[in-house]
Amino acid sequence: MEIEHHPDVADLPVLGSLPALRAALAERGDAVLLQAAPGAGKSTIVPLALRNESWAAHRRVLMLEPRRIAAKCVAYRMAELLGETVGRTVGYRIRLETRVSAETRIEVVTEGVLTRMLQTDPALADVALLIFDEFHERSLDADLALALTLASRELFREDDPLRLLMMSATLDVEGVAALLGGAPVIASEGRQYPVDIRQGAAFRPRERITERVVPAILDALRSHPASSLLVFLPGQAEIRRVAAALEGRSGDAEVRPLYGALDLEAQRSAIAPAVGRKVVLATNIAETSLTIEGVDVVIDAGFVRQATFDPNSGMNRLELRRIARDAAEQRAGRAGRLRPGVCYRLWSALQHEQLAPRSEPEILSADLADLALQLLAWGVGDPAELTWLDPPPRGAWQQALDLLKTLGALRLDTATPALTEDGEAMAKLGAHPRIGHLMLEGARCGFPEQAARIAALLGERDPFGREHADLEHRLAVLGGSSDCPREARGPMAHGPASSP
Q1: Cα dihedral angle (489, 494, 497, 500), rounded to 10 degrees?
Q2: How far apart are CA 343 and CA 338, in angstroms?
Q3: Could you give the 3-state DSSP secondary structure of residue 71?
Q4: 42 plus 178 within the same structural domain
Q5: Is 223 in contact with 423 (CB distance < 8 Å)?
Q6: For residue 109, how many other CB atoms are within 10 A of its CB?
Q7: Is residue 498 in a domain?
Q8: Which domain holds residue 301?
Q9: 134 and 154 part of one domain
């Protein structure tokens, strides 16, 4: 059965754009942009609809998702529509987890995974179509992956073009279309369901976010007695405070957190159907690609915590910022995924007009050390050799090179930057250069397992929480010589870490 005729997707707006999308990819043969509103069905329907096009010739469709939970959920939904298990026609690759097979035709990956795939197979010879989903988020990995892909197409795929499809609800279509040589733009009009936007009052000076959010949640629970709520908060601290304030006050609604530091099973629990109503307290992880069952009311506090590079410390720090208007549009769209919904924006109409129109690309403010390491591993000593939507700032690039030099990753006997053996080894580890250096030095000192465990604690999400701040205790738990704290037993369910 063609996916257009599947009874579960008959009303999705993106279906109307498929003929134009198919024609553009067949005729042009290189790049197309699809602008489709939240809930249009682009993340699941488009890959399934394009997998059997004649130009695909039994090769793979590769789709990038900006977050692990979105990659898994999209893959599971596509497999469900085909009546299959994940790993057959549809599979996924995320950090530390892969579900693919020789049958797999559609592969959903996270952006860092694509970078490593390009390092090992620059031509992507068995890929017919590369889809960048939710490209408006403009993560550092997405910009790097696009720059490397454009270089790969020029060097290795001139006679057999690798088709690109950029998808988003709030994409800067003019800039991206120009970068891709005047690529055509196809619009999928209309949301799946309408969303009623209700603007609030201006934030008062020194007003705490939780002071505004908790009453809004309680009012919405009373006003919408049959609805579940999705509440956007800046970070974990606000989620914990709001959850504590709602304890014993949310009635029949179950309160569930959703943020990146949760293990994947806890994240899936937050988006799965609840027995009754639920209040999902989420960071911007819930802005895109996820359909949270039962939600038709969104409460948006209007803030985000964003990693910003601090040149004084040479490291990233989190800054509390107001969201841009494109992020506000994405968040509001979450209320209309399943039925007509309501979005409460907890700021004034005047404040909304004062928001930046688009979120700042991460490449303009982030630590570029890992990007520099990956470019040098590719053989690029100057980012100006590649094509970018926004080129890496020269100051941040030079600071990244200085760090790599300090870590022993750069050769000192070449006129242009080039990696040492240590630098090449760091690039293959898939970790920040600081973490990679730690692991290499630990191995040299005869403590590879201990170094790997410390690297895991520093580079991955810490499952132990702030109340267990002792590093020695963490290492003992990871090594299996000490009992795991009860609250960390979800992430540690599969036993102690092993040496890589």
Answers
A1: -150
A2: 14
A3: helix
A4: yes
A5: no
A6: 25
A7: no
A8: 195-363
A9: yes
Q: What's this model's pTM, rounded to 2 decimal places?
A: 0.86
* Helix/strand/coil percent split, the chain, to 5: 45, 20, 40
User: Considering just the CA atoms, what is the radius of gyration of the chain in Å?
Assistant: 23
Query: Would the pLDDT of 122 be above 80?
Result: yes
Q: What is the pLDDT of residue 471?
A: 74
What CATH number is associated with residue 204? 3.40.50.300
* Residues found in the chain: 500
Residue 490 contacts residue 265 (beta carbons within 8 Å): yes
Which of 363, 395, 415 corresponds to the end of one domain? 363
Domain end (from 320, 337, 363): 363
pLDDT tier at 38, thresholds 50, 70, 90: confident
Q: Which residue has the higher pLDDT, 112 or 224?
A: 224
Q: How far is it, in rounded angstroms, from Cα 237 to Cα 230?
A: 17
Residues 431 and 359 in one domain: no
Task: Return the structure tokens found at 60.
Answer: 């793979």
326 and 291 fall within a common domain: yes
Question: Where does 136-188 show beta strands of DSSP type E?
Answer: 163-168, 185-188
Q: How far is CA 411 from CA 384, 414, 425, in A?
A: 20, 6, 14
Contact predicate 342/223, CB 8 Å:
no
Contact 146, 115 (CB under 8 A): no
- 3-class SS letters over 279-298: EEEECHHHCCCCCCCCEEEE
Straight-line distance from the first to the last Cα atom of the chain, in angstroms, rounded to the nearest whole number: 44
Contact between 130 and 163 (Cβ < 8 Å): yes
Pair type for strands 97-99 and 90-94: antiparallel
B/e letters for 448-482, b = 16+ CB within 10 Å, e = fewer, are ebebbbbbbbebeebbbeeebeeeeebbbbbeeee
Average pLDDT over residues 213-238: 95
Find where tokens 């924006």 sit. Answer: 345
29 phi-psi bin (left φ>0, alpha ψ -120 to 50, beta other): left
Give the integer Cα–Cα distance in Å for 325 and 329.
6
CA 254 – CA 272 distance, rounded (Å): 12
**AA identity, residue 191:** R
Work out how many domains the chain is built from and give that number. 3
**% of residues, the chain, pLDDT over 70:** 93
Which residues, including other chains, have CB under 8 Å from residue 213's CB and lie 6 or more apart? 231, 233, 238, 242, 299, 301, 346
Both tokens of residue 269?
A: 């629990």
pLDDT tens profile 453-475: 888 887 766 666 555 557 777 77
Q: Give phi and psi for 316, each to the nearest 5.
A: -80, 150
Weakest-pLDDT range from 301-315, 347-361, 409-423, 430-444: 301-315
Whether the pLDDT of residue 451 is over 60: the answer is: yes
